[in-house]
Write a structure and sequence with these properties.
Elements lengths: L5 E4 L27 E5 L9 E2 L4 E2 L8 E5 L11 E4 L3 H5 L5 E4 L17 E7 L3 E7 L7 E6 L2 E6 L5 E7 L6 E5 L5 E5 L9 E8 L4 E7 L9 E2 L11 E5 L8 E8 L8 E10 L8 E9 L6 E8 L9 E4 L6 E3 L3
Parallel strand pairs: 1-23
Antiparallel strand pairs: 2-5, 3-4, 6-7, 8-9, 9-12, 10-11, 10-13, 13-14, 15-19, 15-21, 16-17, 16-20, 18-19, 20-23, 20-24, 21-22
Length: 336
């Protein structure tokens, strides 16, 4: 980050909201015409008797040309398998039936519970750091976009060739509910128990499209580039907190989220974690307004949300960074 030019901002143009809405989101088949089969039927050429009119005689033979008959190709009938059964009723013999009688095969019975569509299912299991291992199974939707909803957080994922997707999601509730929605009437719900959530502080930044947003945490006085500088592009092996990004960028209208997590309930340090929201000026976002939303979960408090709208500089500033220092509150950590 030492090469990044940062433009300090007290805050972007933002609109605050106390709650968020729940948003659940043939070349022509030109068949070849059936070609009618044709058969040439020869007709013998024959001279008709001469005709005589009142003023002149006509004695030229009338010749009939070959006639072409057309007809649709008849469909070849499918063979029907016949089965034999023994006739045991004596009265049938008296009526003229032989001992072997040909009968048509019986029609198979309809299934008691017919399959009307492809089932979509989801499973959630507890994972380390107050997270959930979420799995979605949709065998009829391979390589398909799916939107995951959880406590106001939304992001898009893509199933693999088998129609499955697996991900680790930081929980925002100790009894989290997850909805996996394919946007075509197919969805699945999963829930889990996360009792250790009380030991973690969380800040979520989420947005849609190519906005360039990032969340940065500088733990206990760390500068940009230090081991205590935590963001999605850094090696956080020496840090106490972590940032994960959720969502697939290479899909239609992607919804993405970044989540910073700090283990405040088990911290051995006392001090401040400085949080900032940053965005790079790119060709995709320059000269226009971009929007995001933050969700903050602190120990002993309810989830707090805030909407952000930021007017980006014109495209001469491509490569610069805008830094929003006061958009989310810093974390105050006390050693345990």
């Amino acid at each position: 980050m030492s090469k990044i030019r940062s433009i300090g901002m007290a805050g972007g143009t933002l609109a605050c909201a106390l709650s968020i809405g729940f948003y659940v989101q043939h070349g022509d088949d030109a068949r070849q015409p059936t070609v009618a089969s044709s058969a040439v039927v020869p007709v013998a050429t024959k001279a008709l008797p001469s005709l005589r009119s009142s003023d002149q005689s006509v004695n030229e033979p009338l010749e009939l040309k070959d006639i072409v008959l057309t007809s649709a190709q008849p469909e070849t009938p499918k063979p029907v398998s016949l089965h034999r059964r023994q006739v045991t009723d004596p009265s049938l013999h008296e009526a003229g039936f032989s001992r072997d009688e040909l009968t048509l095969p019986t029609t198979p019975e309809d299934p008691s519970m017919p399959e009307l569509g492809c089932k979509v299912s989801a499973r959630a299991a507890p994972a380390p750091m107050a997270s959930v291992q979420l799995s979605v199974d949709a065998p009829c939707f391979p390589n398909e976009r799916v939107t995951v909803h959880h406590n106001g957080m939304m992001f898009t994922a893509v199933t693999d060739t088998d129609g499955t997707v697996h991900m680790t999601v930081p929980a925002l509730s100790d009894r989290p509910i997850f909805i996996a929605d394919f946007g075509n009437g197919k969805a699945a719900v999963a829930t889990a128990s996360v009792p250790d959530l009380k030991d973690y502080d969380r800040v979520v930044l989420q947005w849609s499209g190519e906005t360039g947003f990032q969340i940065h945490a500088r733990e206990f006085g760390a500068s940009y580039g230090d081991r205590g500088h935590v963001w999605v592009g850094a090696n956080a092996s020496g840090a106490d907190g972590s940032v994960v990004r959720l969502g697939a960028r290479d899909t239609f209208a992607p919804k993405l989220a970044e989540v910073y997590t700090y283990p405040s309930g088990t911290s051995a340090k006392t001090g401040t974690v400085t949080l900032s929201i940053e965005t790079e000026v790119t060709a995709a976002n320059c000269g226009r307004d971009i929007s995001a939303q933050t969700l903050e979960l602190r120990s002993g408090t309810s989830l707090r949300t805030q909407d952000v709208t930021l007017s980006m500089p014109n495209c001469t500033a491509i490569g610069d960074f805008l830094v929003l220092n006061n958009l989310v509150d810093d974390l105050t950590i006390a050693a345990k």
